# Entry
Amino acid sequence: MELMDAIQARRSCRAFTDAPVTREVLDEIIAAGCAAPSALNQQPWTFTVVTNREMIDQLAAGSVECRNKLAEASGKSWLAKYDLSFVGSAQALIVIAADPSKIGMGKFLDEEGAHVKAASACIQNMLLAITAKSLGSLWFTMYDKEFLHKTLNIAPELEIVGMLPIGVPAGEMKAVPRKGVEEVAVYID
Ligand SMILES: Cc1cc2nc3c(=O)[nH]c(=O)nc-3n(C[C@H](O)[C@H](O)[C@H](O)COP(=O)(O)O)c2cc1C
# Structure
């Protein structure tokens, strides 16, 4: 798939079939993430790849708990109806974390969060690679970070930036609208 096509075809996927995703493909997706830019090429990202079925179920249950707490705390009624079954039906969950000590010259430039910026570029690369392989995923953040640190043994100093549930899409993914270029861009000619 051409890059520009993959950029336009990518959608958040929230339904997966039970078709498997191989270790080779997961390695290729992570390699695409590792090709992202980072300040001083410090590559602050780490990946925790969960393919163990019991662990996926445990993380899915954790997200449901997180959603329920959020619904209560925020009073947002749509949250109660937000179906999270796609987390448990994913074939793999990749958790991306970033090292806040790896921010290049950020500390001298009054620049916040260069590690998160790099991890975000990394995640987008992964989402595009997933799309190019006709797989589905989304940038997912409905989890309790402390729970993830503990359950997946992620070092406490690392900042969790996102989770990617990955699988073969079950059905069409809905396109959501975007602002037009003329709405968001200013040209200074
Ligand atoms: C930082 C970030 C956090 C997100 N967290 C969630 C999430 O927890 N659950 C979810 O269903 N989608 C999540 N999304 C996906 C967005 O809802 C989605 O990207 C947006 O609605 C645009 O849709 P599209 O990805 O299909 O183009 C997140 C996206 C980003 C960038």
